[in-house]
């Protein structure tokens, strides 16, 4: 059946579905059905969608771009599910005008994206600035501003020039700090007159976890019990990597504040990923495990940037292994963010491993001697999704925002990522008729609104993601997008959730959206370009082209 026919038929049954499943889904999980409106958020609140360079751009060797670590890593068989790569990704390199148009059609006033380091500085400090890369990002920024959309720019989101990895081990070396400083300075000089929202680095804690604990991201370092890589030390290397990232951030912010901020009028922060945690058992040791879990994830990154040192919970257990900041470093690290970028997807239970036996992994100090799980007494904490350990737990949004707000003196917060991936076994029609994603956004935004009413200084929210894209180790099987992307034609088709988000941003009630789903139910196809060839997309895209894998459970975080 054609994709758009599927949407048309699905929408006809949307109201019936809601009547049947307004309080629970087929598996029996509670669904928080709340009527959330745009008017519950401040008038100047930023609402946007988010993407990152390697995940959407493609054009991996065009116009002077150099090889990135992900270009090399994804071309090694077995590293990525289905041996997929981001050579073309969503072809945003050629289609960014169309992507800006669909973002505008949603009604957003901000757009979060990242710089491809290898597109700007193909060889890092060992080469010159690439004019082609500067031109590309200038076009994106200018086009967004013409549409009334604020660029929210991340300087480094996992991808980096392969040459820096080959020469000195990238983030394992302190040399990387100055290479990052060069990239940041280049961005401030070339784009800072128009970019008012900067984040230096995306999720240092996740980068360290996936690249140096589990070995699932380049450079694929790990050690038992977390993995069996040919190289790596999962107890030590992640600490070194995050330390270098934080110092690089501090140097970049110092430069920005001394030379650019007063003239350009922007603000700068860093993005951290954090689950919320709840005690597995009703005992004090598990409540302390919750505190450690939060400290060893978000606190690991944010405490040094606010207070000048790692969390006391980490100092207590890491002792000599945890790097120390010099007095000079502490001076420029402390207070080195104007806002916190918070990526939040899910909530887990935490169990103490100091006074209780735990499975391998939880008993290591890199985990804070804490075991985390989504299951208690045979019952899951929330509805499962297509990503292992990502459960739908809307209350976690309110709790994590409240925690971050209290720990960091009510510093401004932007929720820089929040989104839903359907189970990988979900039938193709449901990828477009994504009712569960609608429930997800409705519940999480309602929880965020509650946190704001309680006093949290939250200033923006970005849905992950504008469109289905290359989801790192999971390739294209995991689909977080508001728009479906046909992998053959690159045609973008709005899902039901895109219509809901548009409806929400127009300040219409969720209940009214549910009643009016038969209005204009068939999304339009878009004319798109695949690499150098023009493709006229039709309404007859075959739903069987949707890539999925029914048997693989993906662990992204």
From TrEMBL:
Stretches of the chain forming a coiled coil according to its record: none
Signal peptide start and end residues: 1-26
Signal in keyword set: yes
UniProt xrefs under SUPFAM superfamilies: (Trans)glycosidases (SSF51445)
Keyword Hydrolase: yes
Domain of life of the native organism: Eukaryota
Alphabetical GO biological process terms: carbohydrate metabolic process
InterPro entries linked to this entry: GH, GH_1_N_CS, Glyco_hydro_1
An annotated Gene Ontology molecular function: coniferin beta-glucosidase activity
Annotated keywords: Glycosidase, Hydrolase, Signal
Family: Belongs to the glycosyl hydrolase 1 family.
Protein name: Beta-glucosidase
Lineage of origin: Eukaryota, Viridiplantae, Streptophyta, Embryophyta, Tracheophyta
């Amino acid at each position: 059946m054609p994709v758009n026919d599927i949407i048309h038929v699905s929408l006809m049954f949307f109201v019936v579905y809601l009547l049947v499943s307004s309080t629970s889904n087929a598996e029996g999980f509670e669904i928080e059905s709340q009527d959330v409106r745009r008017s519950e958020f401040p008038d100047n609140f930023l609402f946007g969608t988010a993407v990152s360079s390697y995940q959407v751009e493609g054009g991996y060797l065009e116009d002077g771009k150099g090889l990135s670590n992900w270009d090399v890593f994804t071309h090694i068989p077995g590293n990525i599910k289905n041996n997929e790569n981001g050579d073309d990704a969503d072809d945003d390199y050629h289609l960014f005008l169309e992507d800006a148009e669909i973002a505008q059609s949603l009604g957003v006033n901000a757009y979060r994206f990242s710089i491809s380091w290898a597109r700007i500085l193909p060889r890092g400090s060992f080469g010159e600035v690439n004019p082609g890369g500067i031109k590309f990002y200038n076009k994106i920024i200018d086009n967004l501003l013409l549409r009334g959309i604020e660029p929210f720019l991340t300087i480094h989101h996992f991808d980096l020039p392969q040459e820096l990895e080959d020469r000195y081990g990238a983030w394992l070396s302190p040399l990387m700090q100055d290479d990052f400083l060069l990239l940041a300075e280049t961005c401030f000089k070339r784009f800072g007159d128009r970019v008012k929202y900067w984040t230096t680095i995306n999720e240092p804690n996740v980068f360290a976890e996936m690249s140096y604990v589990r070995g699932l991201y380049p450079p694929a370092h790990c050690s038992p019990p977390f993995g069996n890589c040919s190289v790596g030390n999962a107890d030590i290397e992640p600490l070194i990597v995050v330390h270098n990232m934080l110092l690089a951030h501090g140097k970049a912010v110092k430069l920005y504040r001394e030379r650019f901020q007063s003239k350009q009028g922007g603000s700068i922060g860093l993005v951290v990923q954090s689950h919320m945690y709840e005690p597995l058992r009703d005992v004090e040791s598990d409540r302390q495990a919750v505190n450690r879990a939060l400290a060893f994830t978000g606190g690991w990154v944010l405490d040094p940037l606010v207070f000048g040192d790692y969390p006391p919970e980490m100092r207590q257990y890491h002792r000599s292994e945890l790097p120390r900041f010099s007095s000079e470093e502490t001076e420029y690290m402390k207070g080195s963010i104007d806002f916190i970028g918070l990526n939040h997807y899910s909530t887990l239970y935490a169990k103490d491993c100091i006074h209780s036996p735990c499975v391998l992994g939880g008993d290591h100090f890199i985990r804070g001697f804490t075991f985390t799980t989504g299951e208690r007494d045979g019952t899951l904490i929330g509805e499962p999704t297509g990503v292992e350990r990502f459960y739908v737990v809307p209350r976690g949004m309110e709790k994590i925002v409240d925690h971050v707000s209290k720990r960091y003196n009510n510093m401004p917060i932007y929720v820089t990522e929040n989104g839903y991936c359907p189970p990988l076994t979900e039938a193709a029609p449901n990828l477009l008729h994504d009712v569960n994603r609608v429930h997800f956004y409705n519940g999480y935004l309602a929880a965020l609104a509650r946190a704001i009413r309680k006093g949290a200084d939250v200033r923006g929210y970005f849905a992950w993601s504008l469109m289905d894209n290359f989801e790192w180790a999971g390739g294209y099987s995991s689909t977080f997008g508001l728009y479906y992307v046909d992998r053959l034609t690159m045609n973008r088709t709005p899902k039901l959730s895109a219509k809901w988000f548009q409806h929400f941003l127009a300040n219409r009630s969720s209940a009214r959206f549910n009643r009016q789903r038969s209005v204009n139910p068939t999304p339009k196809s878009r004319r798109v370009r695949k690499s150098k060839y023009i493709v006229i997309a039709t309404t007859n895209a075959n739903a069987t082209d949707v890539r999925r894998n029914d048997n693989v459970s993906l662990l992204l975080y």
